Amino acid sequence: MPKGGLEPPLVLPKWILNPPRLPIPPLRLRLQPKAGGADGTLKTITIQPIPCLLVIPDSCTPFERHAVRTITLVTTGGTIEKTYDESTGELSNRGSIVRQMLRRLRLDDASINVIELMSKDSLLMTDADRARITQIVRAIAAPNSATKDCDAATSAIGGADASPVVVLHGTDTLEVTGEALHAAIPYPSAPIILTGAIRPYAMKRSDALQNLTESIFAAGVLAPGVYAVSHSKALRFPGVVKDRQRMTFVRKEDAEITLRGSSA
Fold first, then answer.
1. Is 171 in contact with 182 (CB distance < 8 Å)?
2. Each residue's pLDDT tens digit, 23-56
3. Which position among 16, 72, 221, 250 has the lowest Cβ density within 10 Å, counted as fewest Cβ atoms?
């Protein structure tokens, strides 16, 4: 309560001070007189209703909808999208399957754009591949610093406003790409999430759908930066590495502790 024990004056929003009125047509009723009435004829009366007041809070507008978050998924391949090739009996990257995964998720108030950039095992990625990833991610998450070469990526997501990015990537060299993105885009305007899977989506007990779900959620709540998201963790670059004994991503110092403990 303010000093002096007095409540502040109530300020009414404009919708209450001058509310719109909903027109309601007059109501006409036909009444049947009681038996033995004066003339025995039907009578019609008209009831004129009082106009109804529509009160809408000042903080919203009629038919207001929740804001829709736009998230861009950039697919590059990796184990998360590998499928079984019956002709060779191998798991390989033959194209993006992220849309199959998205169909299994309930994504209220989220608009997902998918850009299929490449479909490669991350062990086969080159510096040129990482330059392409950096270029398109910059165009989406840091458009103010993007170069003219990023026009195609900007038009693909429908505008130049920064939006979160989730990059599907092979886990073997995800840390390399993460460090490259952090070095090239140190101050993004939106979160940049890298994620992958230890087991392909097509296999039982895969972590692919879990990591994709966590990454989409993280893209909407994390501060701008470059992150590795998987297995219920969000780790910010620099200094994120893959722990090949635990088969997950950790801080570099945690991985060194694990290695020292195993060699003791």
1. no
2. 556 656 566 565 555 555 656 655 555 554 444 4
3. 221
